[in-house]
Amino acid sequence: MKFFIDTANLEQIREAAGFGILDGVTTNPSLMAKEGIIEQSTRIKEICAITPTPVSAEVLATDTEPMIEEGIKLSGLAPNVVVKIPMTINGLLATKVLSGRGIKVNVTLIFSAVQALLAAKAGAAYVSPFVGRLDDTGVNGLQVVEEILTIMDNYDFETEVIVASVRHTQHVAGAAIIGADICTIPFAVIKQLSGHPLTDKGLAAFLADHAKIAAH
Ligand code: E4P
């Protein structure tokens, strides 16, 4: 499974890239706003200078033609930009046009298997089901992802499934168990992934045992 980081914060992206396991970056207007960014072009270029991996940049337009124009501009910022388009009818039309021009599209705000099917048919390179927000409504988010994976497999779609809206390490484990292509993970959760209290306890005991014998 590929690991993307879900942030627009440069320090977090640099640090995660330094862990040696970063396969991509996803941003959205809320993540940009969190960084105080109104016009995202400069930030997207800065992120792409840190990593050559796919970097999703979301359009703000909601009508088809403006979405296409914005998508073309975003994709021109760097070769690794992926244009993020919301899952609407206008978004599907824009996805069809952009993907037809060879631009990679990540269709976002996916909450059902049929939405993912439509996005894949429109030519999306990626679909992003939001597991955390689904869990909040009482629907098992990872179960929806499993349905999407089955559909992609049934029809040999090349569309990759990005598990998004990740809230905790169990979402990451669950995504890997069901065979999701990608998980986009907030920085705080990435840092939690490597840790376990028994690892810390075990290491402390190993070092203490070594210190005891070395002192003799
Ligand atoms: C990423 O592509 C999504 O925009 C992001 O994971 C949404 O996460 P949230 O539900 O925590 O806002």
What can be said about this structure in brief?
The chain is α/β, with parallel strands linked by helices and 216 residues long. The protein has eleven helices and eight strands.
Model description:
The chain is of the alpha/beta class and 216 residues long. It has one domain: TIM Barrel (Alpha-Beta Barrel), CATH 3.20.20. Strand 4, helix 5 and strand 5 form a beta-alpha-beta unit. The chain has an 8-stranded parallel barrel with strand order 1-2-3-4-5-6-7-8, surrounded by 8 helices.
* CATH architectural grouping: Alpha-Beta Barrel
Name the CATH homologous superfamily. Answer: Aldolase class I
Low-confidence stretches: none
Shape: globular
Mean pLDDT: 97
Q: Helicity range of the residues?
A: 40-55%
Radius of gyration: 19 Å
Secondary structural class: alpha/beta
**Ends: how far apart?**
47 Å
Q: Please, how many domains?
A: 1
Largest sheet: 8 strands, parallel, barrel
Q: Strand order, main sheet: write it out.
A: 1-2-3-4-5-6-7-8
Bound molecules: erythose-4-phosphate
Q: What portion of residues belong to β-strands?
A: 15-25%
Counting DSSP E segments of at least 2 residues, the number of strands comes to 8
Tally of helical segments: 11
CATH topology: TIM Barrel
Secondary-structure element order, as H and E?
A: EHEHHEHEHEHEHHEHEHH
CATH class: Alpha Beta
